[in-house]
Amino acid sequence: MGFGRVTTLPKTSSQSCISVHTFTIVRVEEMALKFLLLVGLFFVVTDVIAQESVKQLQKSTRQESPWAWACRNGRGCVKVAKDLPVEEGDNLDNPTLAGCKLTCNAESTLWPKPRSIISLSKTLVSFHPTDIRINRISAPTTKVKSLTNEAIQVLRSVIRKSIPNTQRGRNQTAKEPQRPHINIQVSIVSGDERLEMATDESYNLHVETIFATAATPASPRSTTSVSITATSFFGARHGIETLSQIMAWDDTLGAMIMLTDANISDSPAFVHRGLLVDTSRNYVSVPVIKKIIDAMSYDKLNVFHWHLTDTHSFPFVSTREPRLSLYGAYSSAKVYRPEDIKELVHYATVRGVKIVPEFDAPAHVGSGWEWGERAGMGQLALCVNKEPWTTYCVEPPCGILNPVNDNIYSVLSNIYQDMRDLFVSDIFHMGGDEVNFACWNETAEIIDWLKTQGRTDKSKEDFLYLWTYFQNRSLAEVDKAYDNKQPIVLWTSGLTEDGHADKYLDKSRYIIQIWTTGTDESIAQLYRQGFKLIMSNYDAWYFDCGYGQWVGDGPNNWCSPYIGWQKVYENSPSKLIVNFNETYNPRQILGGEAAIWSEQVDSTTIEGKLWPRSSALAERLWTDPDTTWRAAEHRFNHHRERLVQRGIQADALQPEWCHQNDGYCFLESN
C-alpha cells in the first residue's frame, strides 16, 4: 500500500498519528536507501580509480626483460642475456621465447611431426583473433560443411585459450596496418561423415603472407592466405589442427604470432591411433571424457576405445535392458545415458575421433547381471562375487557369463542393438580376454551341457570348445544387430595363444589386439597366420603400470615399473614385427592403442596419467619416425606446455628451465 492512499483517507486522531508515524518511517527508510546507494557508488568509483592506478603503476614500473632467446645449433632455443655476447652461430632473428620456438627447428613446434613435405618460414607476423576470417568452405554436402564450421569454431576456441586470462579483451600491441587479415579457405572432396579405417586422413596446408607496402595502396593491410585441401573432412580437420600449432601467444610482444608462410603435405602412418579408457572400475564423468577427446584431437589420435562395462560396474544405460545399469551402476548419477553417448559421439566426430565401444565377454561381467533368476531367466552370469577371488578371476569381483543359458543371447542381442543405435563405428570390440575356466568347471549346468556334446574330460580343450561356441553365437547376434559383417576386435587370449588362433577364429572377420609383451611369440604367430593386428603391448603402452599395489601389500602393481614417455615413443609397431625377423606388411598392422585401466584412476586423476605420454604415442602412430625420442624432446616439452595452455592437466616433464633452455637437460651417456 502506498502512502498517498494513507493521506487521503478520513482520519481519526489515532489514525492521523499512525499515518504520520508511518510516513516518518518510510521517509527514514528512503533516506537510508539513498545513503547506501551513495556509499556503494563511492566504493565502485574508488575501486575503478584504484585499479586504474595499479595499471598505471605497473606500466610506469615495468622494466624490459634483460633476457632473449637464441636459436643455437645443436641445441634449440636457449636463454641469453641481451647485454652479453652470444655464442658463434646463435641466431637472434626471433628473440622472444614463443618466436624462437616457432622458427628454430625445421618442424617448428608441430606435434605430431608431419611425415611428408614440409616447408616452414623463419619469419613471423602478429595478429588478433578477430583478424581470422573464413573466406570459403567448399564441401559436397551440407553435413560436411557443418562439421567443418564446427571444427573452425574449435580453432577459434583454441586460440582464445592461448591468450592469458589477463590479456583477453585487451588491445594487442600490433599496430593496425601491420596486422594481417587471415583469410582461411577449406576445400573437401568427399562427402564422408563417418571416420572409418579406409578414410583418407591426408591434408595439404598452404600459408602465404603478402605484406602491405606503399606500392599497394588498395591493400592497406597485409594478408595471410590459408588454404587447406583434403579428401575428407577428417583430413581437413587435421589441417586445421596443424594451422593452430604454427600460431602462439607471445608474452613479450603481448600479441598472437604465426609463421608467415608454410607448405605441408601430410598423412598418417597408421589408420588406427587410439586410447583405451576404462570407465567401469572407476567412473569417468562426461565432461572429463570430452577433455580426453579434446587432447586426442590436439595429437591427431583418432580412436577412443571405450571399455564401458566390467565386473565392477555396468554404467551403460541400455534402453532394451534397463535392469543392467539399475543393478550394476555405482549410483544413478554414475551412468552413461543414450543422450550422453550421442552427444559424445558428435563431439568426437567434430574433433576427428571415432568412439569404438567394447562389450567384454564372456569374462569381465558380474555387477548388473544378478537379476536373471528373479526374472525367470535362470543364471545369466556365474560365480558373481565368488570367493576366494584368486581362484575364479584375475581381480575382484569375479563373474563370467553362462554360455549354455539360451537367454543370455537375447540379452546380448539387445545390448548390441543399443550400441548400434548410439555409436558410429565401422568396427566393434567384443573383448574376450582373461577367461578363467575354474567357474565353468564347477558348474553342473556347464558340465552337463558338455556331456551332450560328447565332451566328458573337463579338459582345457573342452572349455575352449565351449568358449568358441559362445563366441560364435555372440558374433551371430552382433551381425544381426548391425545387419552386416563388420570387423570384430578381440584381445589376445586363450583362443589366440599356442599358435591355434586360426583353429577358432576367422582371420577375415577378426582383428586381434595385442596386450602381451612386445616380445611375446604369439605376435609372430598371429602375424604369420595373416591376422590384422592392433598393438597395445603392456610393457610399453599400459599407462596404469607403476602405481602402488591395490590388492595386497606389495610395493607396486602387477605391470610395474612406470612407463616413461621415452619408452612409449620408442615402441614402434613396425619394428616389433621386424624384430621377429618378419617382413613388415602395413596392411596387417593397423596401428595401436595405449590403455588406461581404471583400478587406480578416476575423473580427478586420469588426465595427468594419460598426458603427455599419449602425445608420445601419437607421434609414433602418426609419423612412425626413424629417429629416437631425443630428436623429439624439444618439441615434446613445448607441446606439453601447449596442452596445459589449452586446459589439459598434463603431467610436468622437467623443470621449466629445461623448456627455456633446449638441449641442456640430457644425461649424457659415457
Q: What are the defining features of this structure?
A:
single chain, 6-stranded mixed sheet, 37% helix
Secondary-structure blueprint of this entry?
Blueprint: H1 3-8, H2 13-61, E1 67-72, E2 76-81, H3 97-104, E3 118-120, E4 124-127, E5 132-138, H4 142-162, E6 181-188, E7 203-210, E8 223-230, H5 233-245, E9 247-250, E10 255-259, E11 262-266, E12 272-278, H6 286-299, E13 303-307, H7 323-328, H8 338-350, E14 354-358, E15 381-382, H9 389-392, E16 400-401, H10 407-422, E17 428-429, H11 438-441, H12 444-452, H13 460-482, E18 488-491, H14 501-504, E19 510-514, H15 521-528, E20 532-535, H16 538-541, H17 565-570, H18 573-578, E21 589-596, H19 606-610, H20 613-622, H21 629-645, H22 656-660
Parallel strand pairs: 5-6, 6-8, 12-13, 12-21, 13-14, 17-18, 18-19, 19-20, 20-21
Antiparallel strand pairs: 1-2, 3-11, 4-10, 7-8, 7-11, 9-10, 15-16
Helix pairs in contact: 4-5, 6-8, 10-13
Unreliable sequence segments? 1-26
How does the overall form come out from the CA principal axes?
A: elongated
State the helical fraction: 25-40%
State the end-to-end distance.
93 Å
In percent terms, what proportion of residues is strand? 15-25%
| Strand order within the widest beta sheet | 14-13-12-21-20-19-18-17
Structural class: alpha/beta
Count of alpha/pi helices: 22
Number of DSSP E strands:
21
Biggest sheet descriptor: 8 strands, parallel
Question: Residue-averaged pLDDT, rounded?
Answer: 90
Taking all Cα atoms into account, the compactness measure Rg is 31 Å
